[in-house]
Amino acid sequence: MVEHRSGSPDHGPGGGTEAERPGVAGSDPDARWLALLMHAAFFLLLGASLTRFLMRHPGEARTPWIIALSVTLAVLYLLGPVLGSRPTPRRLAWLAVLVVVWMVLVVLAPSFAWCAVPLFYTGLRILPPRAALALVALLTVFVVAAQLRLADGFDPNLFLAPPAVAAVATAVFVHMQRQAVRQRELAARQRELIDDLLRTRRELAATERREGTLAERQRLSMEIHDTLAQGLSSQQMLLQAADRTWSADPDAARRHVRTATGIAERNLAEARRFVHDLAPADLAEGGGLEAALHALAARESAQAEGALTVHCHVEGTPHAPLPDRVQSALLRIAQGALANVREHSGASAAGLTLTHLDDRVVLDIGDNGRGFTAEPEGVRGGRTVRGHGLPAMRARVRQLGGTLTIESAPGEGTVLSAEVPLTTTEDPT
Q1: Considering the domain boundaries, does residue 345 fall inside one?
Q2: Which residues cross the membrane (predicted)?
Q3: How many Å apart are CA 305 and CA 138, to the nearest integer?
Q4: Residue 393 to residues 93, 298, 308, 428: CA-CA distances in angstroms?
Q5: What sign does the CA torsion over 375, 377, 382, 387 have?
Q6: Does residue 235 lie in a domain region?
Q7: What range defines the domain where residue 343 resides?
Q8: Are 331 and 366 in contact (CB under 8 A)?
Q9: What predicted TM-score, i.e. pTM, was given to this entire model?
Q10: Would 336 be classed as within a structural domain?
Q11: Contacts of residue 272, Cβ cutoff 8 Å, sequence gap at least 6
């Protein structure tokens, strides 16, 4: 009949029942409005079916039963959202009673078959797939039988249309359900990816903090070795010399003590500079690297009291002021190299040469001491002295992207050369 085809769109109450599913559309405002619309459509279809029956069959003996069953079906349908959408025993019993009441109504009044589509969606939403399809097939049989009873004769359209509507409604619902499942899975994967990203960022931040801490410890160890440790070593040597000559040559002993006092003053300035900003004290006094190297050479010569003479020479003019890190590193290398000369080489003369080139700066420290057999970088000999000076120098130069070379041979003195490029990005490590 025309009324059936126009009153049972496959997208009707199914949208409402789908919206009731937990986790599918419960948080979607559009889905909630659609659910209300589909519930209203069910009651309109039920009311239209009852009205049609009362208009065409007034005063029949079955009329009270039809009215009572219609009210019962409406009340049962209203109880559906209250019971939830999970396939609990109480929910399944409710569905069974709802279907049975509808079937009785269809047997007594075939026009109530119009309400089948909402029951399709209710069954598909609650039951397992096979059971839901079996229920849809059963309801479709009842709809076909009802339409054929209402027709004056056999109508192929009435025989084929209800199964087609049921198939479309089922396909739409299954598609919506699968889309909802995919969306939930996608949301879960996105949450997992976000959690993994946050965890990775935390681990990366922790790793960077650890690496920064280790790098800072290494830097501080080099700073302390090149300044305080060397100064304390010199003081120890001077005080030991003063103790040995105190009785025989008091004047020489006093000179040693005064020299040790001067070294202590320099160490105190370095220690205060560590506390302030860890910059070399010679650089902090102004004048740049050249002035600091001249001051270092003069101080080493004075402390040696004639045993070692240190000269400083600067070649070229820098096109721009050297970066602070470069100045600090080269000054520390010069301090460390002269400390090795003073303590281990037995040299009488040493020289500092700072050369400014277009794209790099080179610091050479040479002496006329006893020399040694130079080993390639990364190779440890069987005997080491102190063990930290040369590795610290190499680390400083490597951090600046430069190279450190040593030329020496027994009896021929030593030349240490630190070359630092001025156009290469500094190594952050």
Answers
A1: yes
A2: 31-51, 63-80, 92-120, 132-151, 157-176
A3: 115
A4: 85, 22, 22, 16
A5: positive
A6: no
A7: 306-429
A8: no
A9: 0.42
A10: yes
A11: 281
